[in-house]
Amino acid sequence: MRQYLHTYQYFNTATLKNHIKNYNQSELAELFIGLGEQKFRAKQCFLALYQPSLQSFDQISTLPVSLRTKLSEAYSLFSIETGNVQVSDDGTRKFLFNLADGMAVESVLIPSELVADDGHPKRLTLCISSQVGCPLGCKFCATASLKLRRNLTVAEIVDQYLLAQQSTDKPITNIVFMGMGELMLNYDNVMKAVEIFTHPDLQLLGARHITISTAGILPGIMRMADENRSVKLAISLHATTNVLREKLMPISKAFTLQKLGDAIEYYYRKTHKPITYEYILFDGLNDSELDVQRLAKITRRVPSKVNVIPFHPIEFTNPEGFAAELTPTSKEKFQRFIARLKDAGVTVMIRSSSGEDIDAACGQLAFSRVAEQHN
Ligand code: SF4
Fold it and tell me: For the domain bounded by 18-76, which CATH number is listed?
């Protein structure tokens, strides 16, 4: 990646005020009543807060000046600020976002390879984080070495989108929760952020343009099913046997492939929405003919597709033990695996360019700058 030459500095880092975007519209209404304001002001404020061009309370011209002053004294408009932006040759942008308590997270903005008639990418996907670090300890994952620092707030999740959108004149078309963290462990804040992204009055994104990716936390999958959430669900699978999956993803000791399959069936029965499986290919571990057959069987349980992802080694985190043994499958074996999967009737998606790779899987989001900040 090339270093971007400038750093955005819109915001006052020193502020530890409450973040206004932690409140949804009805909570804002209560807040405004508490401030002695009329309820309809809350809706005016809510509509303005999520305009990507908004950079200060002063710009909310629908609110009286006295209220704008009151808000800016008590609340901060942005909960994060853009620390550094790197741009790769394929147009992918990686953002380092500083949090008010000195921590940091990353988001990645990925243009699609498909180009529309006007010459712009058809899709512009933002991969965002849900936690600072992650407690799940997946062996192929850079974020895992940070362990869990804390959950992100609603405002910190939403602001990743707003600041990334401010950096480009093209609309972000898709959001994937595949950055740092296991979002099912921060379910309430993630879903509250999703409700903002998909709020009909804001018209930011449709629910089918948002993907929730989990390592397979079954209570979260069941809850999504029961709540009939409209967003898409992706499962980080990466192995076709419990033995290997437990080695790669220790959380799967609690949530075996059988239990995961049952939860996915339950989800499909409730929502009728297809699933995406993410499958990183590791040399000699999960790329055999037997894996093809087992993966095909797993994917037949409900309508689904598989994203096959090349492994990006994470040497910069100094992996040890099993993590240090993981290597990418060769290009030839990668292609053969995909061809055999297709032969077995599986719908396969492949990510090839570097930016799309980052899009492809939870835990494959590079994070060296974040690691530096947290050490
Ligand atoms: S791959 Fe995802 S769930 Fe696993 S440790 Fe990394 S961030 Fe957490």
Answer: 1.10.150.530
Domain limits, the chain: 18-76, 80-374
- For ligand 1, whether the C-beta of 362 sits within 6 Å is yes
| Amino acid in the structure at residue 290 | L
User: Mind listing the pLDDT tens digit for each residue in 70-106?
Assistant: 999 999 999 999 998 988 888 889 999 999 999 999 9
- The structure's pTM equals 0.90
Complete edge-to-edge strand list for the sheet that includes strand 210-214: 2-3, 80-87, 93-99, 104-111, 124-127, 174-177, 210-214, 232-236, 275-281, 304-310, 348-350
Pick one of 3.30.300.10, 3.90.1300.10, 3.20.20.70, 2.102.10.10 as the CATH number of 80-374: 3.20.20.70
Q: Is the CB of 182 under 6 A from ligand 1?
A: yes
pLDDT tens string 169-198? 999 999 999 999 999 999 999 999 999 999
Residue 143, ligand 1, Cβ within 6 A = yes
Going by alpha carbons, the residue nearest to atom 6 of ligand 1 is: 363
